[in-house]
Each structure stands twice: as structure tokens, then as C-alpha cells.
Amino acid sequence: MTEQTLSADGKAAPVPADAGDAGYDKALKPRHVNMIAIGGAIGTGLFLGAGGRLAQAGPALAIVYAVCGLFAFFVVRSLGELILYRPSSGAFVSYAREFMGEKGAFVAGWMHFLNWSTTGIADITAIALYAHFWSFFTPIPQWVLALVALAVVLALNMVSVKLFGEMEFWFAIIKVAALVTFMGIGIFLLVTQQPIDGNTPGFSLISDHGGIFPAGVLPMVLIVQGVVFAYASVELVGVAAGETENPRKIMPKAINSIMWRIGIFYVGSVILLAMLMPWDAYSKQESPFVTVLSHIGVPQAGNVMNLVVLTAALSSLNSGLYSTGRILRSMSLAGSAPKFTGVMNKNHVPYGGILLTSAVCVVGVGLNAVVPSQAFEIVLNFAAVGILGTWAIIVLSHLLFVRKAKLGEVERPSYRLPLSPYTEIATLIFLAAVIVLMGFDEVGRITLYCLPIIGLALVAGWFGVRKRINMDVFEKTKL
Predict the structure, then answer these.
(1) Per-residue pLDDT for 271 more than 80?
(2) What pTM does this model have?
């Protein structure tokens, strides 16, 4: 197999071809990819997490969202350049294989699997908790609701990639519509100076309540780790590239849009929230959007926002099953994952990997039955490690790609990560700093305790598969 990519000067250069990309149905349309990019940048980290973080750090949360969002953009922009160099459904696993060898692909793939299989447990737990908000579902045990949610999303994922794209399209529409509606209401209240709970909206609610750093700088620094995880899905747009008709045309626009969406929806929403009510009026027990809407008497505000966060959790579960199926297939064909994860059904869906991820999620159903109050926090610790590992592999792969380009071994596309290699180095330092910051948080320390266990598991796993590694799956072609 031979592919070609165009450099900035228009010359063709040979690139390797990954056999793991064969067999997929190129059914994702530009609107699907654009909405997958939006959906990856908007989730429960904003709809729910912003309330507790506002109460902890005040308006400085907007700065944290902006800084973390910038580094998240560097990660996805690095991935974007690699996509234009060689689109692949194996995404960062395939790129790690090319620039770091199969060991790199092994680590990248299993860290991604760790992230999304445990995030899947968190998602089905969240879905069950959100469903209990409505009295109709209250009598149903949490584990039953979690199992039903998993079964429904699993069944839909097995049908076709087009159905996955449609689901993500409408999930993203709901999330964006909710945010746009809230921001419209908030701007109206700000312009008309309508009092909210006895407070007149405006910048005075920030300046008169301790300024931008009402709790000091330290709380702002300590919430960085939590904010990073709010952006944990941005890299999924890279997996979708392998099932898109014209990724080199579609991806730059989709990836570039992530930056301004982060600016508007995350930074803009937090600034707006801080100007509508005092920062200490928010809490982690309630969505900050519900807090505002309930104080202005919007009927059914709680029901509407609960539906939105339920949609966000379903979207996350849907994306996790989709991406791990493709990543595991890429690994399976090289021998880094069980053979059954490489099989496809007649609809060109890699169902083996999807079923393996679902099996881990079933463990989450068990957690919901045994320790329902702790299931969410337990799995998030492992997901955090997977996120940081995946992002680091993406940036390292890009750094090695740029190094090869300087040696004349490959040619970079015209769509590039700005200020490379400084942006990659800064991003790696930032990710290392996030790990250090975990040590200052009780839950974060548990995550750090997991690192040696995960490291040993990866080493043991590699020794278990190294004899059956087949690099022929990754054919380096020369013209």
C-alpha cells in the first residue's frame, strides 16, 4: 500500500500505510466531524464541574479554562498535523507505531483504553445518577439503570459508523443549544441589569467580592488538574479521520474551531456566571447554570439541565466505545491486543474492541451494585492517568515527526502546529506539572498511587505480547 501527502511546497512524499485502516466505511460527513469536535470540547466538566470550581477559585476559573484550553488545543493541533500527514483510524496509536515503534503504540493504545473504559464506567454511573433525579426512575436500582444505558449505547454502536455520527451530531446540538440559550439569557440579564437574588449583574459582582482571585492564587493553581480532564475528549476527532471521505479538507476546519469554542463556551460562560451572581453563590452540588436559572424563576430549569448533562454523559459513553473499538483493532493487527478485538462485522464496525470495552464497563455495573456512592470517584482516578498518558504520546509522536522532517525523512503538511518544537515541549512540561499538582489533592494522591500499578501492568503486558508483534501490518513503502 502506498499513500502520498503534500508538503507546503507541493512535492509528493511517500508515507507508510497502516493495514489497520483497511475495511472501514467512509460514512462520516463534514457535519458529523464538526460536531464530534464540538462534542469533544463540551461536556460535564463544564455543565457540572464549573460550579464547584467557581466556588473554590472564583472568577480566576476563567483563566484556568483558558490556559488548559490552550494546551488542549496544542495537543489536538499536533494530532491534526499528523492526520494531514497520514489519516488513520488508528490515530495516535498508528502514529506512535511509526515514530516510536510498537512499544510506543502498545503504551498509547492501552492508556487510551484505560482512559475510556474507566470513563465509560463513570459515564454509566453518571447516567444512572442523573436518571434518579426524576422520580419515575428513583425506585430502579442504580446498577440496573447503568446496565440499561450501557446496553442501549452498545447496541447502537454496533449498527454502523453513520449511526454513531448521527448520534454525536444530535448530542452536540443539544449541548450547544443549551449553552447558547443560557448565554443569551445571561447577556440579556447583564444588559438590562435585572437583579438576581438581590444582586445587580455586572463587573461589580467580581470587583466587590474579592476580585479575580478572591481565594488567592493557590486555589486557582490546584484546580488545574480537574479542568484538564474537562477537555479529555478533544483527541477523539483524530479517530474519526479514518472514516471520513476527505479528512485533509475537513479536519483543519474542525480542529481550528475547537479553540474559539473553548474561548466562547468555557471562558465566556465562566465570566458570564461570575458577572450574574457572586462566585460564592455556586456549589459543586448543583450545575452553575441551574443555580442562575432557578434564581430568576425559569420553570423546569433543573429538569432541562439534567437532560443536558444526561446527554453529555451518553455522548461520552458513545464516543468511548467508538474510539476504543478502532484503537484496539489497530493494535490487534500488530499483535499488541487480543486477536478478537481486530474483527469487524458486516457493517464494517470493529465489534471485538467495542465488546471488550463494554465488558470493563460491566465491572462498573458491579461497582454500582456494591459501592454506588463511591463508583464515580474510584474510576476517575484511573481515567485521569489514561488521559495524561494519551496526550503525552500524541505530543511526543508529533515531536519525533518534526525531528524526522528536519532530517528530510518525511515532509510536513502545510497545516502545522505553530512554534514547534517549543509548543510540544511546553505542553509536556504542563502535563508533568499537572501530575505534580495531583499530589496536593486527596483524590489526586490516589491517582498517583495508581501509577506504579499501571506501569507494572504495562511492562508485564508488553512481555506477554512482544513475541507475537507483527510489524508487517505497518508497511513502509519507498518510491
Answers:
(1) yes
(2) 0.88
